[in-house]
Write a structure and sequence with these properties.
This protein is α+β, with helices and mostly antiparallel strands. It is about 30% helix and about 35% strand. The protein has one domain.
């Protein structure tokens, strides 16, 4: 739960009357089963911070893949994470560590 509270605070700190209208956080389920996370980092302090992609496959249901990417459909830079059904917090922690580094 600590990670979720941290993400809430990070999101709130980005809200400046403009950012939240075009950017944000999207958490969805995927049919593997698992999670898909997209966090807009456009116009944030981490926009130009290097990120080394992470690709870990422990088992068929315990895996994660995280990267940063420029989304053509959103025309913005974002952190993207995918993972197994029990890897949601781990993906969010990857984002947290990157932001705080």
């Amino acid at each position: 739960m600590e990670t979720l509270k941290w993400l809430q605070q990070w999101y709130f700190e980005q809200c400046n009357g403009d950012w939240e209208h075009g950017f944000g956080v999207r958490i969805e389920t995927i049919d593997n089963p698992g999670w898909s996370i997209m966090i807009s980092v456009e116009d944030t302090d981490v926009r130009n911070k290097p990120f080394e992609s992470i690709d870990i496959e422990r088992t068929e249901t315990d895996w994660l893949y995280c990267k940063t990417d420029f989304g053509q459909e959103l025309d913005s830079f974002h952190f993207v994470g995918y993972g197994g059904p029990e890897n949601l917090e781990e993906i969010l922690n990857v984002f947290k560590v990157w932001v705080e580094r």
